[in-house]
Specification:
Blueprint lengths: L13 E5 L2 E4 L4 E7 L9 H16 L6 E8 L3 H13 L3 H21 L3 E11 L11 H6 L12 H25 L4 E3 L2 H12 L27
Antiparallel strand pairs: 1-2, 2-3, 3-5, 3-6, 4-5
Length: about 230
């Protein structure tokens, strides 16, 4: 069998992730904010109207495009289970120890295996250089980012794109964080490690649950996205 010289990563639209910026192979770039949620149903009617008006005002104040993405994924409670195990091992009271054990088994065997416990994550994508990505779609930068585009890629200077993107994206990032805080939504910029882990989970949906990225992503020397080969 011939040796495989390329990985799936070479077919992705992401050229690199540096300094908290996703750099695309077409010369574009994006920053991604993770946003908290508001439990809209628990608000009173006047509060709901105020939240809608504030969000509408935020959108109308924008002079650049953004993309709001909602990602649903099965909740990973492995870290929580480990904490319960640790508490159980340190407990000397037999009754409390048994209760912790029963609780852990309930979470593992009943709640997680028999029910789909989903987590929703909210992201705001801020693009740089969108005009070169597409001329037919308003949100072409998202198509490029998630691999829907068939445009021909050319070799880019990653450091040059990064420098230009940072000067363009940082004021937009600060503006959005400030405006979202006014309507009670907390946002934070995803760092380089967080971005790598996010796209690792997206592109490795089937295996990311059992094969997690641990520690600093710069420590990895092999491809993070592998092809399916039997």
């Amino acid at each position: 069998m011939a040796k495989i010289k390329a990985t799936t990563q070479e077919h992705l639209d992401i050229a690199d992730i540096k300094n908290n910026v996703v750099i695309l192979k077409n010369g574009g770039a994006v920053m991604i904010l993770q946003a908290s949620a508001i439990n809209f149903d628990l608000l009173s009617l006047p509060e709901q109207d105020a939240a809608i008006a504030a969000y509408s005002s935020l959108l109308n104040s924008l002079s650049f495009p953004i993309q709001v993405t909602i990602r649903s994924s099965r909740m990973d409670i492995s870290d929580y289970i480990e904490k319960v195990k640790e508490l159980e091992s340190r407990q000397f009271n037999r009754k409390i120890k048994d209760q912790l054990k029963a609780y852990r088994h309930f979470i593992q065997d009943e709640l997680v295996t028999k029910e789909d416990v989903l987590a929703k994550e909210f992201y705001v994508t801020i693009p740089y250089n969108t005009f070169i990505m597409t001329t037919t779609s308003t949100f072409g930068f998202v198509e490029e980012l998630f691999g829907f585009s068939t445009r021909k890629r050319t070799k880019i200077n990653v450091d040059k794109v990064l420098q230009e993107a940072l000067s363009d994206l940082e004021p937009k990032r600060n503006f959005l964080i400030k405006e979202f805080s006014r309507i009670g939504v907390k946002t934070k910029l995803l760092g380089t490690n967080e971005l790598i882990k996010l796209f690792y989970n997206i592109y490795n949906a089937e295996t990311s649950g059992s094969q997690k990225l641990r520690g600093n992503t710069t420590d990895y020397t092999s491809a993070l996205v592998e092809p399916k080969i039997s």
